[in-house]
Specification:
With 411 residues, this protein is of the alpha+beta class. The protein has 2 domains: 216 residues, FAD/NAD(P)-binding domain (3-Layer(bba) Sandwich); 129 residues, D-Amino Acid Oxidase, Chain A, domain 2. Helix 8 packs antiparallel against helix 9. The N and C termini lie close together (11 Å). Bound molecules: flavin-adenine dinucleotide (FAD).
Length: 411
């Protein structure tokens, strides 16, 4: 679909600020719908292809959204299916750990989703964008000012001035788009930091992702092709420097101990990196000619691997609404059009944030009462398959209403 406005250099239908994974997927979807789009990202994309230790576990419908971008054949050999999701309560040192396995066949699926390295996903999305004639991908381009007028938005960047009918902020936690829209923020530190790295190990992982619940925070390994896994290890802020200053072999030993030797002997493939964790919710998703998506709108702990899954639902809904609106000849930056996006996304964002924050509080706590509650909860899940099925289905297909791309339909 071609929009009606005459195309001029530096004038676009949509300007996306922030080319992280949310912004890149959104640009692919909008490009395929025929919009002229510019994506401004502050970073140098040459860094994206370097293995960083960061991966993202994407579940069920999120995979359908990634497939809709057209990159699937280019990434399939470098990603790993998630065939078992294991939760281990490892919080009561004196009692043996409690373990429960969730299996996709119990809900009629062959896998829960896939674990995808950032260094695989981002370059593939950028390659796809570059192949589209209606997308201008502007790396190393920082947006410093955003001015909204009744008909257009003007972006000032260190690579020139751009205008668009709509600006979408996928520019992460410190979003300049959110600030320009004067959208207030609820933000709180968890007092926890995540450490990430890639490891090679001697025993096979059998496509299993295991989340160990411990008082400092969850310790998770997530499978990659071969005997390789990514680690997300959350601890209290004050304990992080001691872990990061460990000698390589001591850190490998610590990871081996934390994983209860399930993976055999561990070798570090990347240096550990640390990520301070905050929970953040923007009070609104829209303003005239402005919309927010991804971590510019919401962020939380990596426990349960929900963050980008939630963001992909934002971008799938936004692409759907904008595509419909252009087909109807509406102004895509109009608040009435954007309010459809806000009303379709609010409940999912609020319930997911609430759920993740409560799970994190419940897990990262060492009181006798909560420890007992955790173990009782896991035992109950182990005994009642129907309860497990309900939990798995909600994890894979949250109650978000009909999202076309998650039902394998076209935009
Ligand atoms: C340790 C860890 C593990 C995780 N694991 C998972 C998981 O398994 N599954 C899952 O679903 N989620 C996971 N998440 C969450 C997921 O990684 C994030 O939700 C996702 O990376 C955020 O993507 P984004 O595109 O919204 O933001 P970002 O990745 O922060 O991208 C924002 C981009 O905007 C750019 N930018 C910022 N300001 C400007 C500006 N002024 N001008 C131009 N560009 C700008 C930045 O350079 C950046 O490239 C995890 C998070 C952590 C911390």
């Amino acid at each position: 679909m071609k929009t009606k406005e005459p195309e001029q250099k530096n004038n676009f239908d949509v300007a996306i600020v922030g080319g992280g994974m949310a912004g890149l997927v959104l640009a692919c979807l909008l490009g395929q719908s025929g919009f002229s789009v510019c994506v401004a990202d502050a970073e140098d994309p040459r860094h994206f292809a370097i293995p960083s230790g960061r991966t993202v576990a994407l579940m069920g419908g999120s995979i359908d959204i990634i497939k809709a971008t057209g990159i699937w054949p280019n990434i399939i050999n470098d990603i790993c299916p998630l065939d078992v999701l294991r939760i281990i309560d490892d919080s009561a040192g004196h009692v043996s750990p409690l373990r429960i396995d969730f299996k996709p066949e119990d809900i009629g699926r062959s896998s829960f989703g896939y674990n995808i390295p950032h260094h695989v996903l981002k370059p593939a999305l950028i390659q796809r964008l570059k192949a589209m004639g209606n997308i201008s991908y502007l790396p190393k381009t920082s947006v410093s000012h955003i001015a909204v007028s009744p008909a257009r938005v003007t972006l000032t960047t260190d690579n020139g001035i751009f205008t668009a009918r709509l600006v979408i902020g996928t520019d992460g936690k410190k979003s300049i788009v959110r600030q320009a829209a004067q959208i207030e923020l609820d933000k709180k530190s968890y007092g926890q930091t995540a450490m990430t790295c890639l490891i090679r190990h001697t025993r096979p992982h059998h496509n299993t992702s295991a989340e160990h619940h411990r008082p400092g925070g969850p310790f998770t390994y997530v499978p990659l092709p071969g005997n390789i896994s990514s680690i997300v290890w959350v601890e209290k802020d004050e304990d992080i420097p001691a872990y990061l200053s460990l000698k390589k072999q001591d850190l490998e030993r610590a990871i081996q101990d934390r994983s209860l030797d399930a993976l055999g002997r561990v070798t570090l493939m990347t240096d550990p990196q640390s990520w301070p964790l905050v929970t953040l919710t923007a009070q609104k998703l829209i303003a005239p000619r402005i919309a927010l998506a991804g971590e510019a709108a919401h962020a939380f702990s990596p426990i349960g691997a929900q963050g980008l899954n939630l963001s992909l639902r934002d971008v799938a809904v936004l692409a759907e609404i904008l595509t419909d609106s252009a087909r109807l000849g509406e102004d895509i930056g109009d608040l009435l059009v954007l309010s459809r996006y806000q009303s379709r996304r609010q409940t999912d964002i609020q319930t997911r944030t609430w759920g993740v924050n409560n799970l994190n509080r419940m897990v990262s706590n060492d009181t006798e009462f909560l420890r007992g509650l955790r173990r009782t909860g896991l035992k109950t899940l182990a005994r009642f398959p129907t309860l497990r099925q309900v939990m798995m289905k909600e994890g894979l297909s949250p109650l978000t209403g009909h999202i076309r791309l998650m039902q394998e339909s076209a935009l």
